[in-house]
């Protein structure tokens, strides 16, 4: 048993607890076990536009099930992202490009990081009609159309990868370096690099185990985060040159003429997220991003903080979304749209009292 010097016995016990698998999780894992038989073919799937948790959990679980003697293939509704190609290695099969055909001859489907069949996109209808058992491993609240007969879910897990780690622990499977990298990717990305509020003490304990199993944190950082293409930085440079800040009312915005985005050779992916820069300005309550689409329409992104309601404001322009993140597509030329929205934003912010920080 590990003992850390300088800690009281009670503190040492609390740290041991972080490494043990919560009883409700081991109970759920033991319910999954009867579905898992050597020699069977298992498909793993996750939500549209798989993220680091979806991909990492799949790549890790695929190898664990292979240790248990199963054939495993990944069948996602959208292509495996190139950013996470390194997780597949030579041993994990990605059959996503075969679409629903890849689900025809399976014995079991495991759905990861979601519990709503609608998030399976083009696979959803086939999954609704599947005659093989379906299991779910997830850390979200179940959606409106949950899927599967056996659900191993816990919303207190920082990532689905944490639940896959516990699956390995409870069943005594080996966390190889490739599995450790996959699960570390899942936890690292779903916690925003250990910054979001789901970064629990246990999340760090699991990450510690994965580092001990061979993960090199700097290499993971480089492969996942240090992958920015020059076009993205050129766009950021030009976009920041348009930044306007009205600190007294808490309004910030950037504005992208069509030619600017084209000149940078940037994609929509590169533009997404730029609005976080005006939002990150100290004291900003409403951040806006204007993007001229070049055919008489301007896409406006609205981001708010505190008690400012971006959704309410976006509805004035026929848009919508979430309370803190909304969007609208407005017909008009960029300068006119900008002037109209900025004037309305100034007026709106006057009506919303500043919340305590
Ligand atoms: Mn997740």
Walk me through this protein's architecture.
The protein is α/β, with parallel strands linked by helices. It folds into 2 domains: 216 residues, inorganic pyrophosphatase (n-terminal core) (Alpha-Beta Complex), CATH 3.90.1640; 120 residues, Diaminopimelate Epimerase, Chain A, domain 1 (Roll), CATH 3.10.310. 38% of the residues lie in helices and 17% in strands. It contains 14 helices and 12 strands. The strands form 2 sheets. The chain has a 6-stranded parallel beta sheet with strand order 3-2-1-4-5-6. Helix 3 links the parallel strand 1 and strand 2. Helix 3 packs antiparallel against helix 6 and helix 6 runs antiparallel to helix 7. The site of manganese (II) ion has 6 residues, from loops.
Number of helices: 14
What Rg, in angstroms, do the CA atoms define? 23 Å
The small-molecule ligands in this entry are: manganese (II) ion
CATH structural class of the largest domain: Alpha Beta
Report the count of strand segments: 12
Overall average pLDDT: 94
Cα(first) to Cα(last) distance is 44 Å
Strand order within the widest beta sheet: 3-2-1-4-5-6
Helices and strands in order:
Layout: H1 9-19, H2 23-32, E1 41-46, H3 52-67, E2 71-74, E3 93-94, E4 108-112, H4 124-128, E5 134-138, E6 150-153, H5 160-170, H6 177-190, H7 201-212, H8 217-224, H9 230-240, E7 244-246, E8 251-256, H10 258-264, H11 268-271, H12 276-279, E9 286-292, E10 297-304, H13 310-315, E11 320-321, E12 325-331, H14 334-351
Parallel strand pairs: 1-2, 1-4, 2-3, 4-5, 5-6, 8-9
Antiparallel strand pairs: 7-8, 9-10, 10-12, 11-12
Bound molecules: manganese (II) ion.
Residues 53, 113, 139, 159-160, 190 line the site of manganese (II) ion.
């Amino acid at each position: 048993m590990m003992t850390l010097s300088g800690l009281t016995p009670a503190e040492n016990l609390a740290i041991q607890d972080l490494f043990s698998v919560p009883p409700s999780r081991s109970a759920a894992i033991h319910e999954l076990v009867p579905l898992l038989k050597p020699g069977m073919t298992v498909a793993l799937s996750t939500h549209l536009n798989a993220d680091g948790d979806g991909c990492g959990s799949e790549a890790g679980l695929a190898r664990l099930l292979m240790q248990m003697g199963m054939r495993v293939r990944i069948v996602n509704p959208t292509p495996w992202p190139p950013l996470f190609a390194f997780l597949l290695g030579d041993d994990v099969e990605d059959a996503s490009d075969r679409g629903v055909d890849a689900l025809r001859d399976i014995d079991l489907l495991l759905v990861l990081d979601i519990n709503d069949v609608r998030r399976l996109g083009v696979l959803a209808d086939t999954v609704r009609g599947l005659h093989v058992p379906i299991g779910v491993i997830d850390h979200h609240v179940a959606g409106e159309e949950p899927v599967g007969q056996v659900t191993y879910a816990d919303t207190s897990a920082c990532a689905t990868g944490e639940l896959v780690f516990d699956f390995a622990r409870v069943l005594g499977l080996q966390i190889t370096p490739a599995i450790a990298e996959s699960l570390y990717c899942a936890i690292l990305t779903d916690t925003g690099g250990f910054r979001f509020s789901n970064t629990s003490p246990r999340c760090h304990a699991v990450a510690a185990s994965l580092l001990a199993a061979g993960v090199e944190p700097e290499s993971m950082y480089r492969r996942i985060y240090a992958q920015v293409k020059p076009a993205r930085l050129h766009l950021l440079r030009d976009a920041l040159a348009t930044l306007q800040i009205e600190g007294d009312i808490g309004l910030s915005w950037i504005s992208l003429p069509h030619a600017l985005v084209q000149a940078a050779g940037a994609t929509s992916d590169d533009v997404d997220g730029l609005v976080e820069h005006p939002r990150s300005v100290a004291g900003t309550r409403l951040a806006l991003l204007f993007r001229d689409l070049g055919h008489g329409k301007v896409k406006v992104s609205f981001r708010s903080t505190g008690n400012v309601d971006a959704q309410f404001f976006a509805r004035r322009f026929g848009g919508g979304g979430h309370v803190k993140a909304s969007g609208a597509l407005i017909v008009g030329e960029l300068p006119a749209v900008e002037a109209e929205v900025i004037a309305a934003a100034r007026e709106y912010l006057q009506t919303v009292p500043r919340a305590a920080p």
